[in-house]
Amino acid sequence: MNGVPNLLTAPGDNHGRQRRVLSHAFSDRALREQEGLLQSYVDLLISRFRDISDRIPEYAAGGDGWDSTGKIELCKWYNGFTFDVITDLSFGQPFGSLADMKQHLWVGNILEGLKAVKFAYVTHYFPFVRRLGSLIINKSQIQKRIELFKWVQVKTATRVATETQRPDFVTAVMEHQKGRFEEDDGKHAEDLRKGELVSNLGLFLVAGTETTATTLSIGSYFLLSNPAIMEKLKQEVRGRYKSNDEITVDSVTNFEYLNAFIHEVLRYYPPVPAGFMRKVPKTGADVAGVHLSGKGNVCLRYLYAGSLLALLMMVPGFYFNQPIHRQSFLPQFHRS
User: Fold this and answer.
1) Does 280 map to a domain?
2) Do 66 and 72 contact (CB within 8 A), yes or no?
3) 309 forms bridges with which residues in the sheet?
4) In 3D, which of 92, 84, 85 has the Cα closest to residue 162?
5) Last residue of some domain: 210, 233, 248?
6) What pLDDT digit, counting tens, does each position of 40-82 carry?
7) In this structure, are residues 184 and 196 in contact, taking their beta carbons and an 8 Å threshold?
8) Average pLDDT, the chain
9) Nearest residue to 99 via CA among 57, 60, 70, 64
10) How many domains is the chain partitioned into structurally?
11) How many other C-beta atoms are found inside a 10 Å radius of the C-beta of residue 232?
12) Which of 3, 109, 168, 170 lies 20 to 30 Å from 61 when distance is taken between CA atoms?
């Protein structure tokens, strides 16, 4: 985002160092400490849905994300929810989309700015494309990403300067580094640099929001389209809990059918359509019994078509063409 490598782009040892530091923000302890904040946004989201569906007078005329008949645009609400959670955990302040019942301006800007990523990939692999300029490159989308970086930079500086022990991403990192954030390698070579913190919080703002909202939207669509599955899931969840207060992060991980459903959603419609690139060594490499020449990159991604998992090789003349049976992905109790 700011030209500084983050977890997604940092090479080798650099990636390992960043991951070791940032892992403190996602440890079991950190997640349990963050649970109260997460639960507060879940409760607020559900309360908004109930207010709209109950046609409370002040909401009856419709608004940003619902209409006068009580129909709710789930994708917009899920984006409001995920962006509120991540901005609060990253910068100590949420966008406030759920509280205001209106999508924050920056949510739309970020989603629009994401479209600029494709231009970066194209120009990286095909530099000559840059000569075409505005014929293929949408400058407004690129400008939105520049504005986003500046916003993240300001918010990160404000959060680091704020003395607080609230359980969030920055607190966990600062505790590990004893409040140090240096500009370069300096005396504490294993620490996260200031620029790296900005770059990674920017990554979290994008990678932890729209992707989660997309998965929630697809999961909701599948449940509404398959009443039998919805009913079975309801029975599993409501059979264990007598009230909302009993629901915790630890307890929901033990639902067999719920977890199977979530995995199926991620398999059918992965929120990130592209896989992670891996460069093939010049000497070549063997993958799953197949030899790859050292003339390209390898990419693992999921395909919905035919419910197949395919290994797509970006090496001329090579592709996997052996189907994988759908039933092999399903838990025993879910097969029919």
Assistant:
1) yes
2) yes
3) 302
4) 92
5) 210
6) 999 999 998 888 887 777 777 778 888 877 788 999 999 999 9
7) no
8) 80
9) 64
10) 2
11) 15
12) 109
Residue 161's CATH number: 1.10.630.10
Identify the domain boundary among 154, 181, 210: 210
Q: By the 8 A CB rule, do 247 and 253 touch?
A: no
- Please spell the DSSP secondary structure of 9-24, one letter per residue: T--HHHHHHHHHHHGG
**What average pLDDT does this structure show over 238-260?**
89
CA 279 – CA 297 distance, rounded (Å): 4
The residue behind tokens 């994708």 is 75
| CA gap 259, 133 in Å, rounded | 46
Determine, yes or no, domain membership for 236.
no
Domain of 309? 276-334
Prediction pTM value: 0.80
Model pLDDT for residues 125-134, shown as the tens digit of each residue: 778 877 776 6
- Which helix (DSSP H) or strand (DSSP E) does residue 121 occupy? helix 117-125
Best CA proximity match to 272, nearest among 203, 212, 221: 212
